[in-house]
Amino acid sequence: MAIDPVYLDHAATTPVREEVFEAMKPFYGPRFGNPSSTHRWGREARAALDEARERVGRCLGARADEICFTSGGTEADNLAILGAWRLLKAKGRKAILATPIEHKAILGAVHQAAHEGAEERFVNMTADGVVDRASFDKLFDDDVAVCSIMWVNNEIGTIQPIPELASKAKESGALFHTDAVQAFGKVTIDAQKQPFDFLTISGHKFGAPKGIGALFIRRGVHLEPLMHGGSQDRGRRPGTENVAAAVGLARAAELTIAECEAHCAAMEKLRDKLEAGILAKVPDAVIHGRGVPRAPHVTNVSVPGTDSESLLMALDLRGIACSGGSACQSGSIEPSHVLSAIGVRPDLASAAVRMSLGALTTEKSIDRVIEVFPSLVAKARQMATAE
Amino acid sequence: MTRERVLVAMSGGVDSSVAAAMLVEQGYDVVGATMKLFCHGDDVPDRPCCSLDSVNDARRVCEQLGIPHYVLNLESRFGHDVVDNFVEEYARGRTPIPCVRCNTFTKFRDFLKKADAIDARWIATGHYARVLNGELLRGVDENKDQTYFLWGIDRTVLSRLILPVGGLDKAQTRARAHAMGLEVIADKPESQEICFVPDGDYARILEQRLPADAPALSRGPIVTSRGVIVGEHNGFARYTIGQRRGVPGGFAVPMYVVAIRPEQRAVVIGTRDELLGNGLIAREVNWLADRPKLGESVSVRVRHRAPLARGEIVRLAGDELEIALDEPVSAITPGQSVVLYAGERVLGGGFIESARQKRTSLPVLAA
């Protein structure tokens, strides 16, 4: 292909940054030690791990002991929900409150808790994809053990008022978790000022490798570990720590925070250009969540009379990588639970294409999408009417 | 010159994998796609088709061939067009043939739309059949020929269809797979069963989808063609014409299921002679060549792998067709297909509505 390919799927994953890769290298070489060992090699690894913990903590306004490294977002989400709920159910609080637009990692963990006796409560969403405050207040009572609300939605980018919702949860004595996998580097996160108890981040969404993430666990908040074994991470997460990845996570987090403002402004500008460009040529395209605060890197567009499966294939064959709803195990695209939950018509939900911007996005690549996407749409619609 | 694009339906089996590989060799711009038609969940790991492993095999083959691979979710359409019909047919006392409807609706209609979406001039599959000058021909391997399942496709599809393995026999296809280094799939077993029926137990699918008190799954009489009740069965949907299993013994000659009468919930048994039919009526007839004339003599096949028989077209009305057979044919089964050939050319086909036992027609099987 003569034309440069366009990667517009940064919400799925991002390339590992060169600086991050460099920072990790020594730990695949001479500094290979096990941080639990007492000898020199172990001490070196331990020092790097402790430092990484501190550095990640600083990026979140947290202390080192509040950072628990995990294998990624899914593990952190599960640890927060199930770990907290399993402890709290003994105290008689039975309910878990979440939104229906959470990531599958949260929904799956909540369903598991329900298997173990929890009462699931799902808050209503507005058509724009934010929490319906009246519904939230109505569902919140003293029975709620854990409340989990994602900060930035991975499919449509809408931002929830997390500090406000967390305060409400704290008033009634519930633990509050937020999945900030898409939020990190896009919204201001400060554990000192914002009263959440748990917060999930995932490295590969911001330039660290896959297989590393972290759960912020506020000092004094307890949870039951998911795994059993050694005493690593205060017993919260047994298993030899992935030192190299933790160091990579720290480096990526620091870079992300340092560049946050400039990066977000640039993404927002490109995202707005992309949306305007599409709307100019496809005036009836629906951009989900457009009326509320959104993270700058995600846009999700449905064009009536098209289907996302065909569009994604056609885009990919033109060198443009986007995504649909969530892919199932086989790789086929399932209708998006997020769009259904915010009341999007099924025909529009099955036409949704998510484009997510990031490090690889340039003005040129956006121009190309603005040129190609509407032409594919026009063709798809022509075929649909020819039937 | 830009290469012509072809979208290949890849099941993860040897035939469609070799088909894709041959097209790559021939210089096409090949795109592979696996149709996800139903979901077994995680509990059927070793199904030959449509399971996760099959999708993975197709993906690995594409990776090896250096071509893109996609999974197309056609579950709801397949469920409606194929699985629902499968259940309805059994409920009506017929023996359906879901592969025909899958080809007609799913593989060669829905799939073609996906090809349109990516500007693919061609579609291809791993079927053992050939397309020549806009006509469909039987596969070179008579033993593997799959035209029996292909008569229902839209005639216009033929101008966009490539069937790369139709000129090979199965052994040659496997040899090609080895020669091209497709070891992942080269020795995969054949899939003979219906893909959405795990372990071949189709009655279980009916039990899942029909109400518990459905007549098709309820007890009824087993009767002889003279109307004598000789036993009881546990649901006529568990029987098909020509079947011996589940038929009561104690007769002087072997007895077979010769008819199913859903309105009486009856399974009718009779002798081998009573299975013979001298003609048939078919519906939903589709032509893949110019419509033949009344009185024309054709070759017909009334069951997959059954030998070809000769017959004469004695009635043509709308999408209905009647054939008088030169020699009697055994076990002509409502719901199965009849396919008409002129030499190796497929003329068309239809779904068997009923068999004609004799011109003077016996009441048992009269339409």
Describe the structure.
The complex is a heterodimer of chains A (387) and B (367). Chain A is of the alpha/beta class and 387 residues long. Chain A is 40% helix and 12% strand. Chain A is built from 11 helices and 12 strands. In chain A, helix 6 links the parallel strand 5 and strand 6. Chain A starts with 5 loop residues before the first strand and ends with a helix. The model of chain A has no long low-confidence stretch (mean pLDDT 95). Chain B starts with a strand and ends in an 11-residue tail after the last strand. In chain B, strands 12-15-14-13-16-17 form a 6-stranded antiparallel beta barrel. In chain B, helix 1 runs parallel beside helix 2, helix 1 crosses helix 5 and helix 3 packs antiparallel against helix 4. Chain B contains 7 helices and 17 strands. Chains A and B meet through helix 8 and helix 11 of A and strand 2, helix 2, strand 3 and helix 4 of B.
Layout of helices and strands, plus pairs?
The complex is a heterodimer of chains A (387) and B (367).
Chain A: E1 6-7, H1 18-24, H2 40-60, E2 67-70, H3 73-88, E3 95-98, H4 104-115, E4 119-122, H5 133-139, E5 144-148, H6 162-171, E6 175-179, E7 198-202, E8 213-217, H7 243-281, E9 286-287, E10 298-302, H8 308-317, E11 320-321, H9 337-341, H10 346-349, E12 352-356, H11 363-386
Parallel strand pairs in A: 1-11, 3-4, 3-5, 5-6, 6-7
Antiparallel strand pairs in A: 2-8, 7-8, 9-10, 10-12
Helix pairs in contact in A: 1-7, 2-7, 3-4, 7-11, 8-11
Chain B: E1 5-9, H1 14-25, E2 29-36, H2 52-65, E3 69-73, H3 75-91, H4 98-117, E4 122-124, E5 129-132, E6 135-138, E7 161-162, H5 170-179, H6 183-186, H7 202-209, E8 220-224, E9 229-233, E10 256-261, E11 266-270, E12 276-287, E13 297-301, E14 309-317, E15 320-330, E16 337-342, E17 345-356
Parallel strand pairs in B: 1-2, 1-4, 2-3, 4-7, 8-11
Antiparallel strand pairs in B: 5-6, 8-9, 10-11, 12-15, 12-17, 13-14, 13-16, 14-15, 16-17
Helix pairs in contact in B: 1-2, 1-5, 3-4
